[in-house]
Amino acid sequence: MTTLHVPPLAQVEQMIGECLNTLPCGSMTEARREEIIAACAGPAMLLIEAVRLAGATDPDTEAVLILLISRLNAQAEEARRVTLFDNLITKLNQHRKNSGA
C-alpha cells in the first residue's frame, strides 16, 4: 500500500506557489505567477498519481519510482548548476575583455 496520497488541487497549487517563493525567479507579475502555477498543477497531479499507482502495486515498486524521480531531479539540478557556472565564466571573461585586463 502506498504512503503517498493525492492532495486536492488547491493544496498542490499552494505547494507550487511555495516553490516559486523558494526559487530565484526574480520579480514577476501576479498573472505570470498564476500562469506558472496553472502550467505545473496538472503535471504535478499526474506525477503524484503515478507514484500512488506504483505504490498500489507494492512498496518496492513505489520505492523504485520515487528513487528514479529523485535521480532525475538531481540530474536536472546538476545541469542547472553547470549552466549557471558557464554563464558566470562567460560574463567574467567578457568583463575582463571589456576592462582590458
Explained architecture:
- This protein is elongated.
- The chain has 101 residues and is mostly helical.
- The chain contains three helices and no strands.
- It has one domain (9-99).
- The model has no long low-confidence stretch (mean pLDDT 89).
Topology:
Layout: H1 9-22, H2 30-57, H3 59-99
Key traits:
single chain; 101 residues; mainly alpha; 3 helices
Question: Could you give a short description of this structure?
Answer:
With 101 residues, the chain is mostly helical.
> What's the gyration radius in Å?
19 Å
Mean pLDDT: 89
Overall, the morphology is elongated
Largest sheet: none
- Please state roughly what percent of the residues sit in beta strands, choosing from under 5%, 5-15%, 15-25%, 25-35%, 35-45% or over 45%: under 5%
End-to-end separation? 63 Å
Domain module count? 1
Unreliable residue stretches: none
Pattern of helices and strands: HHH
Number of helices: 3
- For the secondary structure, the number of strands is 0
- Helix proportion: over 70%
Structural class: mainly alpha
